Amino acid sequence: MSSLSSGARHGVLFVCATPIGNLQDVTLRVLDTLRQVDLIAAEDTRVALKLLNRFGIRKPLISYHQHSSPRRTRYLLERLRAGASIALVCNAGTPGVSDPGVPLVREALKAGVQVVPVPGPSAVTAALSVSGMDGQRFLFLGFLPRNRKERQALLEQVRAVPFTLVLYESPHRLRATLHDLWTILGDRTVTLCRELTKVHEEIALTTLSALHKRFENEEPVGEFTLVIEGAVPSSPPVRDEDVDAFLHQLLAQGWSVRDAAKETARRFSIPRAVAYRRALQLQR
Fold first, then answer.
1. Residue 277 CB partners (closer than 8 Å, separation 6+)
2. Other beta carbons less than 10 A from residue 64's beta carbon
3. Regarding beta strands 39-42 and 202-207, do their DSSP bridges make them parallel or antiparallel, or are they unpaired?
4. Which range has the worst mean pLDDT, 11-20, 177-186, 262-271?
5. pTM score, two decimals?
6. Are residues 195 and 279 in the same domain?
7. Where is the RsmI HTH domain (predicted)?
């Protein structure tokens, strides 16, 4: 952990990941940091207080969320410049990852203030780890736009992306989102992660069509993370002229119609009967 010495020219901003449901998932380093800082900037001080009380931590709290004014950012930056150490926390997970915190982190970096990540729980990585999907390359979409046209436009942009897609959704918007996902992306495999690390946690490998059908008749409850398979690259269509040119070359070399058709079918991944018919036509 970076030094919290008051002798430093500037203070330190610690970006702390907090549990996404189960308070026991908090890391020892986060607890140590929260005990030592001068101030905790929290998305919701009431939520942060539950974590602090659970582990007997008493520190000053100040609210800092997506609707905080630039004045609040300037105040926190002034405290950092004066040598204070501040822990930035959100309600669940990692600040800045589909959660508040970006303006303060950016301004601190621009001002030359040391910014230290204190990693821990994240719904993105937790969902990926249990999804059964390829996590080597993935695209995190956060919460999709509330506006239907904007949401559909974003999905059109990522429809052909071959990487695994990860997104968050709230229960009251889940049905509309599933409808757009199914309509635009097609019936892909999806892993439903609901209430991760909480009492009613659910993880299910299914399809977008099945999920859409399920929640037409079932009221969505809880917070959702969806992990969706990426687009499968499609092969370019086979052109007749390319097939004919290849067949003509083989026949000119003395290949039999049967053997030329077999080799052409293998080369272009087309039915052997189709290649055979085209070879006969070329011989006439």
1. none
2. 26
3. unpaired
4. 262-271
5. 0.79
6. no
7. 240-283
